[in-house]
Every structure is written in structure tokens, then in C-alpha cells.
Amino acid sequence: MGGMKKTGPEAKLLVVDDEPNIRELLSTSLRFAGFEVVSAANGRDALAAAELHAPDLAVLDVMLPDMDGFTVTRKLRASGKHFPVLFLTAKDDTEDKVTGLTVGGDDYVTKPFSLDEVVARIRAVLRRTQPLLDDDDAVIRVDDLELDDDAHEVRRGGTVIELSPTEFKLLRYLMLNPNRVLSKSQILDHVWEYNFNGDASIVESYISYLRRKVDIDPDSPALIQTKRGVGYVLRTAEKR
Fold it and tell me: What is the DSSP code (8-state) at residue 7?
């Protein structure tokens, strides 16, 4: 993890699972792999631990006794906590994957899992959710649209636009590639790193959500445009 500017532990992780054996196995293995680990057995304790310890990433079981992992993630996002979430679940269907990503999750591991796979997924998520820009150049600008990585804030014409974490990542990818047509599969690979067995409807849904928030002037040409049969493109003013 040469890109992380940390000494000591590679990152601080929050492990949430109601099964003591799995929770202890994961915690011990992740500490051995070089992470600092705090753990919780239910959703309420997970929210408290997130507040107290400010983790860099949460490994979160979907099935918890008091509230499911999706609810925990919604509450985290609603309270302004945007650290990535890796879901653990015994289920392996596309609907759960879509639900997990829609509420602001970042990846998905199905039980039974190998510890090597979990460590690899954690490192992959941390790599792709670290700011890619230097600290003094953390604002991406396309015309009157600004995306501030550090503040996790988007503004158009000076007006703040509220985006979910997934919408933020999608817009960020579009803004880093202005006037370049991006296919649905490229967007899935870069924003979610999932292919959903070829089902790209999640991309269509999120482009629709994003347009409603970003293209605020109905009389102006759309900032995010569809290239039928190819994909989507964020057009700069001179190209619209």
C-alpha cells in the first residue's frame, strides 16, 4: 500500500459480525495482516464504534440481530460518515449486491470466504477510495461544476449538490474523463468493480439519479449526455 500516507497500521478497520467465531477469526487475521481492528457484534454497537474510532473501512455482516447491514450503512451515510463498507453475507444474488451498493456499500464478499480474499478486497477498496489527487489539487472542475475530494462536496454554479457516496464516485469518474464516452462496463469496473453478470441497469439508474441533481437548468443542454448504444459522456460547454 505504498499510496497510503500512514505509518504504523495499514488502516483502521471496523469488523461487525454477530457470530463470535467469525468476528474473532476476522479480527485476528486482519491484525496479523497489518491492520488496526475494532469490532462490534450488532448494528447499534457498530454505529457507536464508528463514532468513537473513526475507522478507514468497515467489514460489515448483512445479517445482524438488531438491524441489517444495509440499515447500518444508511445510518452511517446519513450521519456524514463516508468511509468505505465491505459487506459480508451468506446470500449470493444480484438483488442483494445492488441493494448493498445502492445504500453506499463499496464491495461484497459471500460466505464462506477465504481470509486471503477478504484481505485482498479490503486493500482493493482502500486503494480505489483514497483521493487520487495531490492534497493541494483536490478539486476537480469542469465548467461551473466543482467536485471537492477532501470535503466530499459537489457544487454547480456555487450551489452545493447533495450526492450519495455512489453518485459522488460516479460523477468523479465522469469528471476525470470529460468529453470521453464511457461504456456501461467501464463505469461498472471503475465505480463499482462489479459486472453483475452483464446487467448494467444499475448504471442507467445512477446516471438518471445524477442527472436529476446535476442538470438543474432544463433550458440548457444536458451536462451528462447519452451516446446511444455506446455509453455516457460528460460534455464541456464548448462541446455541447
Answer: S
Condensed to tens digits (0 to 9), the pLDDT of residues 129-141 reads 665 444 445 788 8
Question: How many other β-carbons are positioned within 10 Å of the β-carbon of residue 12?
Answer: 17
CA distance 31 to 222: 48
Residue holding cell 468497515?
58
The three cell numbers locating residue 200: 448494467
Mean pLDDT score across all residues of the chain: 83
Coil, helix or strand at residue 163:
coil
**pTM for this model (two decimals):** 0.60
Per-residue pLDDT tens digits for 213-223: 998 777 777 88
In whole angstroms, give the CA distance from residue 113 to residue 226: 38
d(CA 134, CA 59): 28
Count of positions (residues) in the chain: 240
Structure-block grid coordinates of residue 32: 496479523
| C-alpha closest to that of 221 among 229, 209, 233 | 233
Percent of the chain with pLDDT over 70: 84
State how far the Cα of 61 lies from the Cα of 72, in Å rounded to an integer.
10
Cis peptide bond N-terminal to 55, omega within 30: no
| Residue of higher predicted confidence among 202 and 94 | 202
Half-sphere exposure of 25 (CA within 13 A, CB side): 12
**Alpha-carbon span 198 to 220, nearest angstrom:** 33
pLDDT in tens, 193-215: 654 455 577 788 889 889 989 98
Element (H, E) at 116: helix 115-129
